[in-house]
């Protein structure tokens, strides 16, 4: 089976057929297992995720039925044997990912390899592989199950993982001198993340190096206004320094955008 959480929940069998559950409660159960693979989740935790603070008196029995249904979807016949991917482990259950594929796991592998390529000095290879990894996203992670505290928290962590990785890919490509090529993409990204300082920093750098300093200063005004309206904050010292460097035409792209190596994902 190939599991997907980097977008709406997906499940594809070995023949390429989609077999994700349609019922929301089954989706919630499967998604909880996928964001915590190989770790035991208690019966209490799973009941809380599925029913919130008002579980029915039959919740434990119903959970057992849902577990059986998921096993059947996985082609395991509802078995409780050690051959099942979902094992009973006091005080609850554990989902063993071994033998299956996961878009998040593949993304993590590619991102980590991109970090090793960067460390070895292969900036172009790192940027190319990171772009490949980012294409695994099919939209907002867990888009159709952001309805419980645990899954919402997991989705937000994945949101941050996505934009931080995207920023890193932009950083690598700017280092390679692709400023003019990236301007349009960065404008779109700044529109999607109007108060994300690093995105606007990269947009300002790309515009300046593309010979468009006036637009670079407008980009600074845009995030300054967004920060003021949303949180009453001013841009960081770093971003203000970049504005001054553009005004004085003394900008050095390498000095204002230090290279921070990619870290492995826990």
TrEMBL record:
PROSITE patterns: OMPR_PHOB
GO molecular function terms attached to this record: DNA binding
One BP annotation, GO: regulation of DNA-templated transcription
DNA-binding region(s), residue ranges: 1-97
Annotated keywords: DNA-binding, Transcription, Transcription regulation, Two-component regulatory system
InterPro entries xref list: AfsR-DnrI-RedD_regulator (IPR051677), BTAD (IPR005158), OmpR/PhoB-type_DNA-bd (IPR001867), Sig_transdc_resp-reg_C-effctor (IPR016032), TPR-like_helical_dom_sf (IPR011990), WH-like_DNA-bd_sf (IPR036388)
Domain annotation OmpR/PhoB-type: ranges: 1-97
Pfam families given in the database record: BTAD (PF03704), Trans_reg_C (PF00486)
Keyword Nucleotidyltransferase on entry: no
Family of this protein: Belongs to the AfsR/DnrI/RedD regulatory family.
Record-given protein name: DNA-binding SARP family transcriptional activator
Species of the source: Streptomyces murinus
């Amino acid at each position: 089976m190939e599991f997907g959480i980097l977008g709406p929940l997906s499940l594809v069998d070995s023949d390429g057929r989609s077999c994700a559950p349609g019922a929301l409660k089954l989706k919630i159960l499967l998604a909880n297992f996928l964001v915590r693979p190989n770790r035991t989740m208690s019966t209490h935790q799973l009941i809380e995720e599925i029913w919130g603070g008002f579980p029915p008196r039959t919740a434990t029995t119903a959970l057992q039925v849902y577990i059986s249904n998921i096993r059947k979807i996985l082609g395991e016949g509802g078995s409780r044997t050690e051959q099942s991917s979902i094992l009973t482990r006091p005080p609850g259950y554990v989902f063993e990912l071994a033998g299956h594929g996961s878009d998040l796991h593949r993304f993590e592998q590619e991102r980590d390899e991109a970090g090793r390529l960067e460390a070895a000095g292969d900036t172009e290879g790192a940027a190319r592989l990171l772009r490949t990894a980012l294409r695994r996203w099919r939209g907002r992670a867990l888009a159709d199950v952001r309805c419980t505290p645990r899954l919402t928290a997991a989705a937000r962590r994945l949101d941050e993982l996505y934009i931080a990785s995207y920023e890193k890919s932009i950083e690598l490509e700017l280092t390679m001198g692709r400023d003019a090529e990236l301007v349009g993409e960065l404008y779109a990204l700044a529109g999607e993340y109007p108060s994300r300082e690093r995105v606007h920093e990269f947009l300002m750098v790309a515009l300046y190096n593309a010979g468009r300093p006036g637009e670079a200063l407008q980009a600074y005004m845009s995030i300054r206004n967004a920060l003021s309206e949303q949180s009453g904050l001013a841009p960081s010292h770093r971003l203000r320094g970049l504005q001054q460097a553009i005004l004085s035409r003394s900008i050095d792209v390498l000095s204002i955008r230090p290279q921070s190596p990619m870290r492995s994902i826990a």
